[in-house]
Amino acid sequence: MILVIAETRRGELRPVTLELVTAALGVKEAAGGRVAVAVIDADASSFAGALAVAGVDEVLAVSAPTQHFEAHHTQRAVEALIEAEQPALVLLGHTIDSMGFGSAVAARLGLGFASDVTAVSWNGGPIATRGAYGGKLVAELDFPGHERTLLTVRAGAFDPAPAAGAEPAVRPFDVAFDAPLTEHIEFREAATGDVDITKADFLLSIGRGIEDKDNIAQFEELAERLGATLSVSRPLVDAGWMSNARQVGQSGKTVQPKVYLALGISGAVQHLAGMQKADTIIAVNTDPDAPIFGVAHYGAVADLFDVAEALEQHFA
Amino acid sequence: MKVVVAVKAVGALDDEAELVDGDTAVDPDGLEWDLNEWDAFSLEEALMLRDAAGDGEVVALTVGDEEAQDSLLACLAKGADRAVRIWDDVLAGADPLAVARVLAAAIEPEAPDLVLCGVQSSDAVNGATGVAVAAHLGLPHVAVVKRLELEAGVATVERELEGGLVEVLRIRLPALMTIQTGINEPRYATLRAIKQARDKPLSELGLDDVGLDAAQVGAAAGARLRQLRHPEKGEGAEMLDGSPEDVAARIADIVKERMSA
Q1: What ipTM goes with this model?
Q2: C-alpha distance from A34 to closest chain B C-alpha (Å)
Q3: pTM surpassing 0.90?
């Protein structure tokens, strides 16, 4: 069987869960013909409706002792599920929550393991595809010597499984939990600032390639001239040059503008996750192997300052 | 306050990197080595915690061959008190679970108050090693920490979630945390410190020095690399050639056309 670990946060099923179901369906027959989705949540059985999608045979409901995700509890629950259900394949989202326990489960149970997986196939056992060398190469992995393998799958790599009519059967699954090792204090939204980049039709997005804080003003001017909204990649926020409100990527905003013009952004995985669904992506970078060219519709290997200067002339 | 920081020297591909060993490795001549970006932040956090405590030690520890030596020296130059490099040829191309097994074996006798790792490395981008180390050591752990305050053995941390959401939580030491970029402003080493780094203790250990053998490391591995390849071309971008003026003119045309559509 394939065991999919659902991800919930504040009472909502996170979208990656239905993508994991699609990933599971692709290798379902080879992996034993059954897909179970485990929900580990204070109110686990309430998610059966959201999991009424094609191909889910059963929902395993683990009643979590804390209201919010606690990494050690989830780790314990996933270990107990694997030991009891003996799945050939365990799928998690490659998400912040999973990064808090997924590899710990694999290390403790001696599972086959790969993270940030973008494709899954089967040849006597699972075969996983993921990036290597910062996404400049593609790696294919297998898991010899492992009867069970745990993969964390990149969000957005698979389409969500379509809805089905009937709710899947729900089976309660009891886990003996220890006391939590972390104490939840609160959730906090990052400052939103005065701009909503998710509403913009045209984003001019700048990254590490602009080199210096003093150069930001010139791109603010360029954005205004182009009628674009300025957005940034993570390094500019980390450096304290720009507010998190303008950050595109996993930890910032997910955007889908008509045009995304990226200057000096190499395209780390976490950035691509936030912009790859833009209608038209144009990327300018000095590195011909920059991963952003893999998702861009148009690319140019050029100095962004030269291009920016020349671009101004076309927008009076 | 004793903090162990697990660091990694990362290899960045240059333009002409070639695949070797039946396409399961990159020719080392095509790699430029540097301290992993995330580790500069975790090291800085460790140094600040030690300095705030007024006493203690920061130990930088890596699994890596001789190419990792400069990254360890960089950690010493920035202020780590000592460094440890563990290597055996069987570790070439090791996956995160095998590396975690070795790191854990080396960290255990150090009995630190805190273990810090980067969230991920810029080359492999697994985001997996740190938490697997915690599993071996039986340490409580938090991943993707973007703020850390310590008081009386209890850390209040901010965990960076998706979409700009943050979770504030508390965890008691000893613990392991994986540190996100932007948590602090990593210091640069002075020229003087870079010189002095060579006089700081740097031990080089083999597997048997940390109580492991090749079979145990092999058994800990989670995956085997079957093949590396270049991403398929053609599905990628249509490249705009010519001078910057030519490129800008094409971009202007595309933007105007799409925005009026």
Answers
A1: 0.94
A2: 24
A3: yes
